[in-house]
UniProtKB/TrEMBL annotation:
Pfam families: Mob1_phocein. InterPro entries: MOB_kinase_act_fam, MOB_kinase_act_sf. Transmembrane segments: none annotated. This is Mob1-like protein. It comes from the Eukaryota.
Amino acid sequence: MFNKTTSTIVREPGHETVKNIEIDYTFSESQIDQQIQCPKDTDINDFISFNLCELVEDSQSFFLFVKGQCKMECDTMCAGQGNKYLWQVGQDKPQELKAVDYCNCLYDQITENLQNPKLFPITEPYPKDFLKYVKQMFRRLFRVFMHCYCSHFDLIYKSGMEQKLQYQIKYFAEFMKKYQLCEIEDLEPIKHLLDQK
Ligand SMILES: [Zn+2]
């Protein structure tokens, strides 16, 4: 069990603000089920945006933790054997990048997207294709967790962070499934972890 400081969306007339609160997270399936429910008075797209920001922050803190080892050891962005991810921007040809370079490109791209008011408006409605864009962001960010889990588990285990990583993987996997932000095959590399009760 561990505690995590997280944030919640507070809706005010015309705009949303984010306020920090303390929540006790425990590693229980039923608690995750509750946590991924969109609160009744919250817009679903606000809730998805909020969780996307959480995923950016949580995945990035694990990436930064393994970055030194990753730079030396990982020639490709992968999640276990046979699951290699190529980097692609728009219609460009997909390219194979070192895992560190893939993650750096990913966080640069996500930061740019999050600052784009056409995608994440403050007062205007969300764009019609909002889910299409966030789905791609969720899928790519989740690969960072899977890479950390599959390629850097020893380092994470030695530092006593494996339970936190496992919790976050389970939380975001359930979240993405519930809101159709991934394909089932995206979760295949960590299926054994997700099947564990
Ligand atoms: Zn790595």
